[in-house]
């Protein structure tokens, strides 16, 4: 082992006004220094990629939200002296541990001290200009997941600085007594704090703070959608990518029509941990801040299962912090959102891997279809559930008599309800109010070579993520997926290329031979989209009115007549 570090410059250009330096140990590990507003960080360089990438892991962007900071807005992180190692990931936030997640490390530590982010930056480039920045917000239903689950090294090697973040989950991120004492939305404020950290520090990592694209999947996609609506996030990003999630999704926010409100959930959880002063929010907060964190999480998970109301700890409309000052439909109708370039879409068979009855040996009958749909309508009151169920049956099963047709209509009904119709409804409003920006829609239709779903299904929920973060990485192949085929690799290159090119230029172009289809912008009266497959195709929605008319009725049940502001698409 060498007795001293050997100082060497890894970059051939100065990336910003900050000085980035590397040190090389006798073990041939390479390290990089970066200055931040809190102090100096040391990251490790991965030289095994086509373009070497430095990873800075476990960077605190806020103080630990523990004790008196629990159920509060995030506070600025503490500063340090000397050099802080950023070589290992910070703890994941306390959460429901999901099984069979393609990206999750089952041995990752969890704690309440979890407000960390990770930066991946390429160390070789052809220009001294700062690189575009992409900030990724993970999914997991607001109650699971972490930024550290995703290795962004391969994406960063495409010429972007990539940031992944943690944010508070479950009750720690969203518990609310619906007043000024516990307004909720702490997890969303974490996301805003992370974006502020990026704005103030990313230049030190070679990134351009004036060219930031926020990216999210599932609940992360709904988060991106909500960030575009939030006045607190205005000016912190310049483009947005949304994969399978919208602010209008039935699970994305608390709706007035939900049978389980935040206030009721907070009272049930508090009572379960012996915080019984339910009519005094200040006393309740003080009590809850003293309860063991794991005890709180266990109580929240137990209540969620007991009430069978899908998600009970989600973002909500509130004006105390002002993260979401009005209903998403109202903000969209008034054009009160960040006018930025957007790229968004969903997978062809999102719920195909989630509903066992669809993959089982028994045929799906109309009665089975309605049972499946009832399971996805748990947040509604009994009256509204039956009303929505009739609308779903009329929209997706009318005229279908064969087993295959009923099966297809059943899955389409769930997918449109949860993902497709909310996404397209929001996009139509965004395009009408922000026509000066570029907007793109996709449908990911590629069936992976390693898919274990029935043959009649294509892309399931979250499968595009495997290709977005490179289908060849060991993390993916070790999950039983095997070695990717040529088509797998080409689709992966297409996704990485189009997404990073969108972040760079606002235009999702591709240089892959089988992916030369022009991705036309989505415009009012011209609902263009890209069907992503082994050979992608430029397409146009042929019957969008069916889905959006149906979803307008869903919104009517969830929040009342004001949802009529969502205009159906003209096909």
TrEMBL record:
<dbReference type="InterPro" id="IPR051093">
    <property type="entry name" value="Neuroligin/BSAL"/>
</dbReference>
<dbReference type="InterPro" id="IPR019819">
    <property type="entry name" value="Carboxylesterase_B_CS"/>
</dbReference>
<keyword id="KW-0732">Signal</keyword>
<dbReference type="Pfam" id="PF00135">
    <property type="entry name" value="COesterase"/>
</dbReference>
<comment type="similarity">
    <text>Belongs to the type-B carboxylesterase/lipase family.</text>
</comment>
<keyword id="KW-0378">Hydrolase</keyword>
<feature type="domain" description="Carboxylesterase type B">
    <location>
        <begin position="35"/>
        <end position="539"/>
    </location>
</feature>
<protein>
    <recommendedName>
        <fullName>Carboxylic ester hydrolase</fullName>
        <ecNumber>3.1.1.-</ecNumber>
    </recommendedName>
</protein>
<dbReference type="InterPro" id="IPR002018">
    <property type="entry name" value="CarbesteraseB"/>
</dbReference>
<dbReference type="InterPro" id="IPR029058">
    <property type="entry name" value="AB_hydrolase_fold"/>
</dbReference>
<dbReference type="InterPro" id="IPR019826">
    <property type="entry name" value="Carboxylesterase_B_AS"/>
</dbReference>
<feature type="signal peptide">
    <location>
        <begin position="1"/>
        <end position="16"/>
    </location>
</feature>
